[in-house]
């Protein structure tokens, strides 16, 4: 989405964070698909932290 692209651009030019997992585009309601994406992102973040 446009918001994700803008955040990624800002990250690359200003923050230089290492991306972990796939970005999740959340709207007003959380669908089962979005919930699964959020859970996958959370697991990826936890794995990254535990690996360090």
Automatic annotation (TrEMBL):
Name of the protein in its database record: FprA family A-type flavoprotein
Source organism, top-level taxon: Bacteria
UniProt xrefs under InterPro entries: Flavoprotein-like_sf
Lineage: Bacteria, Pseudomonadati, Bacteroidota, Bacteroidia, Bacteroidales
Organism whose genome encodes this protein: Segatella copri
């Amino acid at each position: 989405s446009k918001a994700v692209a803008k955040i990624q651009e800002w990250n690359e030019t200003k923050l230089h964070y290492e991306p972990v997992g796939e970005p999740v585009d959340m709207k007003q309601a959380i669908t089962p698909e979005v919930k699964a994406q959020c859970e996958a992102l959370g697991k990826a973040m936890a794995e990254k932290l535990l690996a360090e």
